[in-house]
Amino acid sequence: MKCWSVLQLPEDAGLRDIKRSYARLLKVFRPDEDAAGFQRLREAYERALSIAQWRLENEETDEHGDVMLAPGIAALAAQEQSMAQPLQKTGTDAWDYPAALFEPVTPAAPEAPLESPILRVQPLNPEPLNLEPEQPTADPAIEAASQLLNGLSEANLDERWEQARQQDCAQAFQTLLLTLCFDQPALRLSIARWAVQHLGWLGPWQEIVIGDGQRSILASELLTDYRQSLETLLASQNEREFLALLKTYTAQPWLQVFDRREHWQQIILQLLQDREWSVPLFDRISQLFGWDDTKGIHPQPDWLWQALIERCNQESLYDTLCARAEDQRNGSPDALAARMLISPMKPRQHKDLTDRFIPADWQACQQLSETLKWRFPDLLARLPYADVFYWRRFLPRYIAAETWLRSWAAIALALWLFYLPAEHKTTAMSIVIPLAFACVPVWFFRIGLSYWFLISAHLIVQDLWLTERVIPRRWNPDTRWLVLRHGVPQAVMILLFSVMLGALGAFTYIGVIVIGLWHKRRIGTLDPEFSDKHPWLTALHWAHFSPLQLLFLVVMTGVILASQLGYSLKHLFPG
Fold it and tell me: Which of 118, 333, 369, 563 could tie 364 with a disulfide, CB 3.0–4.6 Å?
């Protein structure tokens, strides 16, 4: 029929389906926008209600039909039994014979029991044949709820809901409100926010049926909106408002369901990963959700949780270092190291601070620098200096014993080459004299350098300024070498070798130093078999001496020896 096509329903639809379809189509055919369409929808709705009501009543009539036919069937059975009785003899030996069966007589009228109206069963409410039956009254609850949805907005949701409760159409209002969420997506989020708070939508005690697809869409949009609101507060560092809003969201009934609660905690975990926060805020959030790393109670994934724990430790360390650096009365090694690395200071202030350092203070600086570099590298961006070991430029540097041994060997070799051309010398004297006399300049150097390092420590500020402008940063990234502290002693050594052996001696010393600085391919960890086969390389490895340095020294020694014996380099290059 036409009414079913207008309502977009099959012909066997029930009363509930008719009412739902009518409520849904009311949003399409509004009386103020399409009066003709609304009239057709109204007539089809009333016609479909009439047919469905007739079907329902007719089914009840059929159930009672068998009971109403029983008395008529019993009467017919009694009549047939009386007609089947045999003939009986009277007192006069005469037999009573019935009338001839074939005598043409007028048939008698049917007996009253045979004409019982019970045998002629008629439906109590026959299907109306008129195409325009009497129009029944529509559901008043749906009508009232539909009127309340006109002009609905986020501002008047509370008012319309109160009116729906007063007009006893709360159920219909919720149903039509859910339909409105998906008919008008612009209102979906505002309606969903209000409904989960006041109507218990998506929770275990909701009063209407929400499909799985609708439930998924509403939950997804709500969680996205919640995350954006929390992220805005966290980005603006409003941690108090953030925590209050988080408690409000978490207390909603629809987020108490196990799966949805786990999903909500994962969203908060990812939000904390993406934004900056303080350690007290993380502790309050952990208390709110019951997180405990020691007991293994935390959301998934595990790697993200461990990253947050490490970040929490990082923030705790930074807060502790800042507190130590600000406490000027604390003179412990840890406090001095924190002040050295955290507080922005000028070189003169650093020098004044390090003048009072003892070995324990320098050791604390070393440990703190290694912790920051290898365990918490993200904190390096917050430090005043990119190089976490920059404090080493203020560290007093002591000369190792092997340095004096190398200096003595180099001076002894230079003295041997210097005295080699001399006459009236024995082999023993040519060896003993250089070895003995080489101790004299080494002894003077030790005394002179001890004073020089004290002087250079007072000139550290000027030395740093000069080093940064003379030596390119890519050659000296960590400011390990200083122009005055290290340049002056090396200049004295070059002058000494140039006095004994001339330009070749100075060139040899400079070459050995440059090769040692630039040769990066030194042996790392020696293989035992390789070490057994090449013991001399093993010795060079432990002495931090490059094989190229040894090769260069041998070659230059031969050149200087030839020059000292009277062979000019001009003879090697004739012409």
Answer: 333
Task: List the chain domain ranges.
Answer: 2-80+108-138, 157-314, 315-394, 401-571
Q: Which of 308, 235, 232 is nearest to 269 (CA)?
A: 308
**Cα–Cα–Cα angle for 387, 392, 394, rounded to 5 degrees:** 120
**Any idea how long the chain is?**
575
Residue with tokens 């959700």: 289
**pTM of the full structure:** 0.50
**Helix, strand, or coil (residue 5):** helix
CA distances from 15 to 45, 170, 172 (A): 10, 19, 15
Q: Of 48-62, 76-90, 487-501, which range is least confident? A: 76-90
CB atoms within 10 A of CB 71: 12
CA distances from 333 to 277, 357, 358 (A): 29, 9, 9
pLDDT digits (tens, 9 = 90+) for 197-256: 888 888 777 778 888 888 888 888 899 999 999 999 988 888 899 999 999 999 888 888
**pLDDT number for residue 246:** 92
Alpha helix locations (H) across 347-482?
A: 347-354, 359-374, 401-419, 427-437, 439-458, 460-470
Q: What is the distance between the alpha carbons of residues 361 and 4, in angstroms, rounded to a whole number?
A: 91
CA distance 473 to 464: 12
Specify which residues 316 forms β-bridges with. none
Going by pLDDT thresholds of 50, 70 and 90, the confidence category of residue 98 is very low
> What are phi and psi for residue 345, nearest 5 degrees?
-140, 160
Q: For residue 531, what are its two tokens?
A: 């070490």
Give the model confidence (pLDDT) of 64-88 as tens digits.
Answer: 544 444 444 444 444 444 444 444 4
